[in-house]
Amino acid sequence: MRLSRPHRHDVLIAVVSLAAGLLLYALGLHVNAGRRLLPEWLVLVPLLVTAALELLRRTAPRTALVVGTLAIVGDQFTVGSLATIVMFTDLMYAAVVYGGAGTARRLPFTTAAITLAVTVTALVWWRDAQALMVGVLTAIVCFLPAVTGAAVRNHREAAGAARLRAEQTALLAEYDRTQAVTAERARMARELHDMVANHLSAIAIHSTAALSIDSPETSRQALGVIRENSVQGLTEMRRLIGLLRTAGGDGEPVAAPTLEGLATLLAQARVNGAAGGLEFTLADGRPAGGAPLPAPVELAAYRIVQESLTNAVKHASPGRVTVRLALAAGRLTVEVDSPYGGQRSAPRAPGSGAGLVGMRERVALLAGEFEAGPAPEPGPAGSGAPAARWRVRAVLPAEERMTS
Questions:
Q1: Residue 379 has pLDDT above 70, yes or no
Q2: Domain co-membership, 289 together with 141
Q3: Residues 263, 151 within the same domain
Q4: In the beta sheet, which residues pair with residue 281?
Q5: Whole domain around residue 334: which residue ranges?
Q6: Please, which residues bridge with residue 335 across strands?
Q7: What is the reported pLDDT for 384?
Q8: pLDDT score of 236 more than 60
Q9: 389 within 8 A of 331, measured Cβ to Cβ
Q10: Which of 17, 158, 6 is nearest to 90 (CA)?
């Protein structure tokens, strides 16, 4: 087994303890001064061994304790050195603090048993109350260092666990903050797209028409539509900026659009889609005088209709675009049908696909249902041919408890 380099503090402890032990030997100060079983100089052997073991108190605490125990037993047959005893107590302490978890758990109980056994044996052997001092000295040398080490180790482990919990809490807080920022950016992106996309699409379509058709009347009408959409786009942008500014609680909150504004929305769509031969109708099947819908549902439904009308102006074939609303069993159904797949004489505006993604996200946030795609319907009577339609359908929970 390759041992690690001793810690500088362990080297300092070994050097100071050895120097103290040599000084005590030089002064003739011994623990067992009256005990002359062996030559006096042999007290230096346990002293040198325990001093060397101090270098291993962190890197190999269990080995240091086992060898140190042999050294302290051997020291009892010499005149004895106080420095050797003190270093052994430090080895006991280090074995609990730096040793394995099993060693740290067992040593306090083991030393307690040893202390009790030594005390009982001394009482039986000497039959004198002074024998209790032997038990006290044994407790000071073995049991107290082990208990102290266990307390220090438990404190360190508790502090380490607290630091780990604090780090984990900080990581979770940072993760929550990142998630909140990401969700807020996604919300802002949806709002920006839904607010401005239809106006910019109309501007793109009518500016293309003005450039491609050499007619003063057509250009004048296109410029009128462009100007109207520009003004409305600026108004929507100012509203979005107002929403961002009031997010911190300063100023009055900006009112969110509701389904009551669908008539105005369709009127604008009629102007924008006139060049493409589109007609727009609204079929509101909600019961009159019903309870108001939750604000998130109103906003989501309005934005879905707005984005669907924008897509119709950009991509639909000439024909009728129908917006349907229905409220039943606590669920609001929004459908927008538009002609699909036919010839289109008006210019088309490029699309990015973000509109469908935004609608799907809005519905998912409310735990609703969303689908968009071709939906064949029966054609004119007698033709027998289905008319291709593009249908956007969203079902939203319309009860407050389901959206809170």
A1: no
A2: no
A3: no
A4: 322
A5: 257-378+385-404
A6: 324, 393
A7: 45
A8: yes
A9: no
A10: 17
- 338 lies in some domain: yes
Kindly state the average pLDDT of the residues 226-232. Answer: 70
What's the number of domains the chain is made of?
Answer: 2
Q: Flag whether 204 is in a domain.
A: no
Q: Where are the alpha helices (H) located in 1-143, listed in sequence order?
A: 8-27, 44-53, 61-75, 82-98, 101-126, 132-138
- Those residues whose C-beta lies under 8 Å from the C-beta of residue 53, and which sit 6 or more positions away, are 64, 67, 68, 71, 87, 91
- The reported pLDDT for the residue numbered 159 is 92
pLDDT at site 166: 87
- On whether residue 347 sits in a domain, the answer given is yes
Which of 130, 147, 170 is at the close of a domain?
Answer: 170
Q: Judge whether residue 402 has pLDDT over 60.
A: no
Task: Please tell me whether residues 52 and 160 are part of one structural domain.
Answer: yes
b/e burial code for range 244-271 (CB count within 10 A of at least 16 → b): eeeeeeeeeeeeebebeebeebbebbeb
Check whether residue 27 and residue 136 sit in a common domain.
yes
Q: What is the mean pLDDT of the chain?
A: 81
pTM equals 0.51
Confidence of residue 44 (pLDDT cuts 50, 70, 90): very high
- Between CA 12 and CA 7 the distance in angstroms is 9
HSE, side-chain direction, 13 A CA sphere, residue 358: 27
The phi and psi torsions of 171 (rounded to 5 degrees) equal -65, -40
Q: What is the dihedral of CA 81, 82, 84, 90, to 10 degrees?
A: 170
Mean pLDDT, residues 9-29: 91
Asked if 379 contacts 387 with a C-beta cutoff of 8 angstroms, the reply is yes
pLDDT of residue 251: 47
Residue 176 lies in a domain: no
Average pLDDT value for residue range 44-68:
92
Could you give the residue ranges of the DSSP H alpha helices within 36-100? Answer: 44-53, 61-75, 82-98
Q: Does 18 share its domain with 127? A: yes
Bridge pairing between strands 377-378 and 369-374: unpaired
**229 contacts 202 by C-beta, under 8 angstroms:** yes
Phi, psi of 278 (to 5 degrees): -105, 140
Cβ atoms of 70 and 50 closer than 8 Å: no
What pLDDT, in 10s, does the model give residues 158-167? Answer: 998 899 888 8
